[in-house]
TrEMBL record:
Span of the annotated motif 'HIGH' region: 138-148
Alphabetized GO MF terms: arginine-tRNA ligase activity; ATP binding
Enzyme class, UniProt record, top EC level: ligase
SMART domains: Arg_tRNA_synt_N, DALR_1
Native source species: Mycoplasmopsis anatis
Catalytically driven reaction(s): tRNA(Arg) + L-arginine + ATP = L-arginyl-tRNA(Arg) + AMP + diphosphate
Protein name: Arginine--tRNA ligase
Keyword Transit peptide among UniProt keywords: no
Compartments in which it is found: Cytoplasm
Similarity comment: Belongs to the class-I aminoacyl-tRNA synthetase family.
GO cellular component: cytoplasm
InterPro entries per the UniProt record, alphabetical: aa-tRNA-synth_I_CS, Arg-tRNA-ligase, Arg-tRNA-synth_N, ArgRS_core, DALR_anticod-bd
Length: 551
């Protein structure tokens, strides 16, 4: 069902369409491109009527009319006031239109929420777009670290929201298992494995030295014993598969604990190289490649890159860029919209990948790349740097031990992805109203408590005659679909966490300052409570955070 905000926008657009028929406004105005503001006024004087909405539409359409904005506003006012959703319409210079909603409008908002339940704010986009959201995609060469956690949470939340608003979405993890880093993993694990049998073997300089590699070697010894001590080179393929499989299992395990899941794991080695997905891209790129000194280059400089990029080296091997292009080509054969959630260390890679897509014949606008900046862990006021598991940077498992999944997810979602972020473990774990995740969950549990205690009185009328603070709370419920639409369009998931923090704050204030049970308006107020509970629960679900009924 359409929310009240959207209904009023539609009413205003229809009024302007009528004005075009009446030649008050020129036909030159394209209604499909009409962009105006309809929002709660930022500043209201205490002695004035509390307006629910204000719009600048009269000033926006003024250039298509001989009338001035105030004259247009008066004409719009005359038509608006006839609608049953609107109680009052006042004007303010130079042409603002201030709107007070009727009691029927507020009841309509509440009924919309309660009738829609889990589907409130869903199916906002009616098209056939199919997304592949690729995120995390960490090399299977060790445990996930805290930086991966942020990208995982943002990607997973985006998948949840896009699905909710009506898109077909695949959550995908790209397993980089064909590059040299896998050779380094095998060599590192081999040394640790042999060391476990008291065979003196020195770790090469460039190998992985973390405790996660010691764990991996121990797991292999536990399951396979001394199988790989003899004729290792003949068994290296099996050893490689075991190493990757065990690390991917551990990665999946830690992601599940973070409430993150994937539909597809695409292997660079199995799905790109072995299925011959690379060779076909050269035919698609033929008008944009050339050979020089035995190497093959992509003419990225023609599209603004600082230099052309090598696809095939002079020794015949591919650069890492080439299978990545093939992978994106493969993704666009399965979906028409791509979202990549990349770490900040990949930001310099964005431009050349967009150019590659254009060279393949795609529109670069069909790919969004979200850059996720670094996270610092703070504990006891100091940066928490070392992992007790890996002996290197802090792992996701360390973070999950230090804080709850709910606190980690919610806190990570309160900042723009492209800003550096300090995750304060002590603050995230606080059990008080000043901690955003606690405040939101507490609001939900309060609503649940009231609902359990409430005994309906069938004789009590529900009239929608709410005070201004309650009306403001109801308006908050109405804007959720607009917030979800904005997240889907901008890919800024922090808009949803900001929304639910504000909603919970408004409800906690309402709860503390309003007599609900036993009041004369008990039935009407309990409809508000039930609707708030529904929206809080649904929003927390979209954020991947639990909604406890008691705390």
């Amino acid at each position: 069902m359409t929310n009240i905000n959207s209904k009023i926008k539609e009413i205003l657009i229809n009024i302007i369409a009528d004005f075009q028929k009446e030649e008050i406004i020129s036909q030159e105005l394209n209604l499909a491109e009409l962009n105006f503001i309809l929002a709660e006024p930022n500043i209201q004087k205490d002695d004035q009527t509390k307006y629910n909405y204000a719009t600048n539409i009269a000033m926006v359409v003024k250039r298509f009319s001989t009338k001035n904005p105030m004259e247009l506003a008066e004409l719009i006012q005359q038509k608006l006031i006839l609608n049953e959703l609107i109680e009052c319409v006042d004007l303010a210079k130079p042409g603002f239109i201030n709107i007070v909603l009727s009691n029927k409008a507020f009841l309509s908002i509440l009924n919309n929420v309660l009738n829609s339940k889990i589907n409130y704010g869903s199916n906002l986009f009616e098209n056939n777009d199919k997304y592949i959201v690729e995120f995390v995609s960490a090399n299977p060469t060790g445990f996930l670290h805290v930086g991966h956690a942020r990208g995982a949470i943002i990607g997973d939340t985006l998948v949840r929201i896009l699905r909710h608003v009506g898109f077909d979405v695949i959550a995908e993890y790209y397993v980089n298992d064909a590059g040299n880093q896998i050779n380094v993993l095998i060599e590192s694990t081999k040394v640790r494995y042999f060391n476990l049998f008291d065979i003196d073997m020195q770790m090469p300089e460039d190998c992985y030295r973390g405790l996660d590699i010691v764990w991996l070697a121990s797991e292999i010894k536990k399951e396979y014993g001394d199988e790989f001590l003899l004729d290792f080179e003949l068994k290296i393929k099996k050893f490689r598969e075991i190493c990757i499989s065990k690390l991917l299992d551990k990665i999946r395990e830690h992601l599940r604990e973070l409430n993150v899941s994937f539909d597809v794991f695409t292997s660079e080695f199995d799905d790109i190289y072995n299925k011959n997905k690379i060779t076909p891209i050269f035919d698609k790129l033929k008008n944009h490649i050339y050979e020089k000194d035995g190497a093959t280059f992509l003419k990225t400089s023609e599209f603004g890159d600082d230099k052309d990029r090598v696809l095939v080296k002079s020794d015949g091997s591919y650069t890492y860029f080439t299978p990545d292009i093939a992978y994106h080509n493969d993704k666009l054969s399965r979906a028409n919209k791509l979202i990549n959630v990349w770490g900040a260390d990949h930001s310099g890679y964005i431009n050349r990948m967009e150019i590659a897509l254009e060279c393949l014949g795609y529109n670069k606008e069909d790919m969004d790349i979200l850059v996720v900046q670094l996270v610092r862990l703070i504990k006891d006021g100091n940066e928490f740097k070392m992992s007790k598991r890996a002996g290197t940077s802090v792992t996701l498992a360390d973070l999950l031990e230090a804080s709850s999944t709910d606190a980690i997810r919610f806190t990570m979602l309160t900042r723009d992805a492209n800003t550096k972020f300090d995750f304060d473990i002590d603050k995230a774990n606080q059990k008080d109203i000043n901690n955003p995740v606690f405040g939101v969950q507490y609001a939900h549990s309060r609503a649940c408590s009231l609902i359990k205690k409430y005994v309906p009185n069938s004789t009590e009328a529900i009239n929608g005659d709410f005070d201004e603070k309650t009306k403001k709370l109801i308006i908050q419920l109405d804007i959720l679909p607009d917030v979800l639409r904005s997240v889907a369009q901008t890919k800024k998931v922090q808009l949803l966490s900001s929304y639910v923090i504000n909603l919970a704050s408004a409800f906690n204030s309402f709860y503390s300052n309003t007599k609900i049970l036993g009041s004369e308006s008990e039935a009407s107020l309990m409809i508000v409570v039930k609707a708030v509970k529904e929206v809080l629960h649904n929003t927390l679900e979209l954020l991947g955070v639990s909604a406890p009924e008691q705390m």
